[in-house]
Design brief:
The protein has about 375 residues and is of the alpha+beta class. It is about 50% helix and about 15% strand. It folds into three domains: about 120 residues, Butyryl-Coa Dehydrogenase, subunit A, domain 1 (Orthogonal Bundle), CATH 1.10.540.10; about 110 residues, Beta Barrel (Butyryl-CoA Dehydrogenase, subunit A, domain 2), CATH 2.40.110.10; about 140 residues, Up-down Bundle (Butyryl-CoA Dehydrogenase, subunit A, domain 3), CATH 1.20.140.10.
Amino acid sequence: MDLNLTEEQSMIQEMAKRFAESELAPVAAEMDLNADHDLLKDHCSKLAELGFMGLNISADYGGSEAGVVAFSVAITEIAKACASTAVTMSVTNMVAEVIQAIGSEEQKQTYLPKLCSGEYLAGSFCLTESGAGSDPASMRTRAEKTDTGWVINGTKQWITSAEFAGVYVVWAVTDPEARKGKGITCFLVDATTPGITVGPAEHKMGQCGSATNEVHFENCTVPESAVLGKLNDGFRIAVAELAGGRIGIGSLALGIGLAAMDYATRYTTERKQFGKPISDFQGLQWMIAERATELEAARLLLMSAADLKEKGLPFNKQASMAKLFASEKANQACYTALQLLGGYGYMREYPLERLARDVRITSIYEGTSEVQRVVISREILKEYS
């Protein structure tokens, strides 16, 4: 098995690294402190120019056709510098991938070039509701049939990039009499459609530079052509097609963990106590070794899942394994890194405070760690049935 990146994948990784170091790292702390979404929008525009908003999208629709592995390594490099930018990039790529996978030719021609080019700075998934998080089949948003299309009413919560997205992928109940999960349909809704109201930005613990909002749909009328995929097939889309998002968030978590341990390890070689660098103490050496081993294992799990998806093979179990392990171990890495800095790690002057806040959500969004364990165990038990 060849674990090396191809020349193209390495080039994309290096391009992402250069962009992260030159454009993102210098302003990441400011963006977090001020929740500066104007900076974020500027980053999105520049990422689109680099081809990073459609990494796994066909060139026929303006994409880069770089593949899933390239997407994963690019997200990791971006996240090392700025998790807020990385999550926006990840979600927008996944919106484009879902449209490419199940959209009509008209939908692909309408929306994909705009997402890839940056005409739409971002795309958003409108799935989660206050009473439907880990259990999306319990959603209450409704879409009622009309002579010309559908009318959507409901509220979606914690929607990434909602305030400047160009298109929303919206899930709504279209057959309330159907068995739970069977009467849900997916819609593509232009953000300028009348009846949409985006709430104020949420005040979050971490990833403060990214935009997260409620989206309200009040008598929002869309044409029949807005249906994405098959009628009443939306729950399957949520479960199956969005599994690739776990590769994105796992890669994002990995980037944060690597950035934290890189900063802390360098610090231990410079910080002296008892007359020598603290990196000379075995207890700290073992902490560094354990986290480095875990992050490398996370990277390999992510590469395995990305490779399977790129080859068109089943990857759900591997994506959940990778997301679970990467997010949990990245959380540990950030707290270990903060511990290695001691009191300095707790100060906002140093990046560990921000990284520790940014990483916490990775074990929650795109499916909690608990949900990932359910998915993994279910896939394993299928093999025995």
